[in-house]
Amino acid sequence: MSDPSMRRRVPSSKAEQTPVTPYQRHPPPPRRGHPTRSLHISLSLLILGFFVVYAQKHQTFYHSTPTYAKHSKQLPARYAICSKDGQSIYTVPEGEGVGETQCVVVDRGQVVQTGSLGKIRRNWIDKNPLNAMKIINLPQGHTMTPGFIDSHGHPLIYGHSRQLPLHGCKSVAEVIRKVEEFVKNNPLKEGAWLEGLGWDQNIWENKEFPTAADFDSSPMLKDLPISLSRVDFHVEWVSPAILKLLGDDIPDVQGGQVVRDENGRPTGIFIDNAIDMLTAIRPPWTDEDRERYLNIMLEDAMSKGLTGVHDAQGFLKEVPFWKRMAEEGKLPIRFYQMLKCEDEDFCGDKVEQITDPESHYILRSVKLFGDGALGSRGAALLEDYSDKPGWKGFMLKPEEVWGPLIKQWYDAGWQVNVHTIGDRAAHVVLDAIEAALEGHPLETRRNARFRLEHAQIMTSEDIERAARLRVIASVQPTHATSDMWYAEDRLGPERIQGAYAWRSYLNHGGRVTLGSDFPVESIDPLKGFYAAVTRLSEDGRSPHGKEGWYASEKLTRIEAMRGMTIDGAYASFSNITGSLKPGRKFDAVIWDDDLMAVPDDEILDVKVKGVIVDGKVVWGSLG
Q1: Are residues 573 and 592 in the same domain?
Q2: DSSP 3-state of 13
Q3: Which strands sit side by side in the sheet containing 226-230, from one edge to the other?
Q4: What is the pLDDT of residues 12-21, one digit of tens each?
Q5: Which of 533, 557, 559, 558 minimizes the C-alpha distance to 547?
Q6: Is the pLDDT score of 252 beyond 90?
Q7: Residue 473 belongs to domain with CATH number
């Protein structure tokens, strides 16, 4: 097969690039009768009233409850999608490569055959001319891939975060201005907190954490309860009003930090486990809030080509909400959830797993947290931080807890996914995984599918060991391109060699699945695809120039495509998604250009034109 990265598709016409409105927010107006005929007027009003009542009942007019787009003509139970340009459909089979074909035949939401147009005509049309199957042609220059899967995201938190995003603020003053503007337009309800996400002290001039006193500079904010999460969610910056709610005696905690001034008073910064004190007094979400946040996320996710998301922190108390959303048909894409206990280390006996592959909500894994984040120096390192001698970060649980805890979850039949960013966290968790696997049959060990979420910094020995143990590295390529401006300062020139080392992991025979960690990073999977294959910022820069940051660790486009499709399916035990080969669900994305062929600097210009799940168009259109 010729190298697909050397091919170039014919660009789409301008007409074909016209954006498709993703949602029909209002029902079409009823057809009115002649204005001089009172009977027709009455009927029209009656029909209009029916639509209004129906819309209100189903929240059609409510901004955050979308009505998912339908194809202009309802798709039949059986149809084929073909490319006029030849092999412009990527099937991404098990094994290797991306598998190019011209046509895909779909029957009741499942792929039943792939091949050339001639083959499809012979098998499905010539043999049955009286009941010929419909063939839908992709527009010229368009391509189709399996639906993209984000293997690490936070759906509800994403929707919540969109109310006050603080990404890119270059100073405390800029954050304060944004919060003031938000308050002007969104008066705070009684008992509520003002919450936002995205600030990052590493892009500020002094690179220091802010303080509660900073809010006192604003007469508008000084008395309000404000809690702003750092971009990685591992730090919260709160106002004096919230410090007052916590009382005078704010204790230190294991696996976290309450930052204090020279007099021992809390400054308003809470790191990792210390955030639990804020969680205990934070106003809770309602299911109405959750559904609103979910719909915000769904609209953005589908518009970017996502047909599946691995929810990396599904709280136990939220399981009934997710089950209800699935039962009511309100999950147009697939969710694979990692359970997060709240007040205990093991809660696997308090909820039943959901493993029906037909469901759009699967619950069979757990999320454990090994350490914090590199940006806040909470990641647990084996040796001191290079830019903070005497400090190694911290494990969120004592080391002796990990062996029994991981074994308990594994023996109870749960997939175990552990947040590990620092090399010490990875080492401790791999020790625990290795011990948990001892005594189990070889085939059982091979299919355990333990996951290291982030797998960000590892020693070369632990990279080799993780691959040997068949531990999946669940990585986020845009973390590398966000962190590359300060990561080496934190780690030094030697330790950085084992950081964001995706190529090294694959070279040892390991398996990698890709995600974004949205809303920490963008929900757009193409930003991750671009970062994976270039290791450059979106404007083409890196600390090492235009070749990319530690370019030897880049992924190929084939590896990136697989990491966002078939590998995401494997990492969630799915053998019915992630591919367009026969027997798989027809979850697909139609693009207006070819991700495998466009130049690097045009990857982010490729647009989603249609999204299909279970053989049905859920966003955009087929042409």
Answers
A1: no
A2: coil
A3: 194-199, 226-230, 235-238, 266-272, 256-260
A4: 333 333 333 3
A5: 533
A6: yes
A7: 3.20.20.140
Are residues 527 and 395 both part of a single domain?
A: yes
> CB–CB of 403/454 below 8 Å?
no
User: Is residue 68 included in any domain, yes or no?
Assistant: yes
- HSE of 210, CA atoms in CB hemisphere, 13 A: 29
User: Which single residue is written with the structure tokens 């949602």?
Assistant: 23
Cα–Cα distance measured from residue 223 to residue 324, given in angstroms and rounded to the nearest whole number: 39
The verdict on 565 and 436 lying in the same domain is: yes
Check: CB of residue 544 under 8 Å from CB of residue 551.
yes
User: Do 138 and 119 belong to one domain?
Assistant: yes
The alpha carbon of residue 129 and the mean position of all alpha carbons in its chain are separated, in whole angstroms, by 45
Number of domains forming the structure of the chain: 3
Tokens 């300060």 sit on residue = 486
Query: Closest Cα partner for 354 from 573, 564, 576?
Result: 573
Residue at 349 is within a domain: no
**Residue recorded with tokens 């599946």:** 308
The whole domain housing 237 covers: 157-281
* Tokens 């799915």, residue located: 574
Block residue for tokens 């890119």: 168
CB 152 within 8 A of CB 517: yes
> Is 30 inside a domain boundary?
no
**Which sign does the torsion angle of CA 600, 606, 608, 613 carry?**
negative
What tokens appear for 334 in the block? Answer: 């697939």
Peptide bond into 519 cis (omega under 30): yes
Separation between Cα atoms, residue 350 and residue 542, nearest integer Å: 47
Do 195 and 69 have their domain in common? no
| pLDDT tens digits along 533-560 | 999 999 999 999 999 999 999 999 999 9
Cβ-Cβ contacts under 8 Å for 88 (sequence gap 6 or more): 9, 100, 102, 138, 142, 143, 144, 594
Q: What tokens were used for 144?
A: 């189709």
**44-53 b/e with 16+ CB inside 10 Å = b?**
beeeeeebee
Question: With a threshold of 0.90, does the pTM exceed it?
Answer: no
Which of 281, 308, 328 represents a domain boundary (last residue)?
Answer: 281
pLDDT in tens, 44-64: 444 444 443 333 333 322 233
Beta carbons of 417 and 453 less than 8 angstroms apart? yes
Predicted pLDDT at 610? 97
Q: What is the dihedral of CA 482, 488, 489, 494, to 10 degrees?
A: 160
**Which of 7, 169, 202 minimizes the C-alpha distance to 87?**
7
Beta bridge partners of 585: 110
Are 447 and 563 members of one domain? yes
CB distance 518 to 158 below 8 Å: yes
Tokens, residue 572: 């969630």
Q: Is 416 in the same domain as 496?
A: yes
Report pLDDT for 244.
95
611 by Cβ neighbours in 10 Å (0-12 / 13-18 / 19+) ranks as: buried
Alpha-carbon span 114 to 104, nearest angstrom: 5
Residue 364 falls within a domain, yes or no?
no
Section 236-250 average pLDDT: 95
Q: Secondary structure of 114-144 in the HEC alphabet?
A: EECHHHHHHHHCCCCHHHCCEEEEECCCCEE
Domain boundary among the residues 281, 310, 326 is at 281
pLDDT in tens, 373-406: 999 999 999 999 999 999 999 999 999 999 999 9
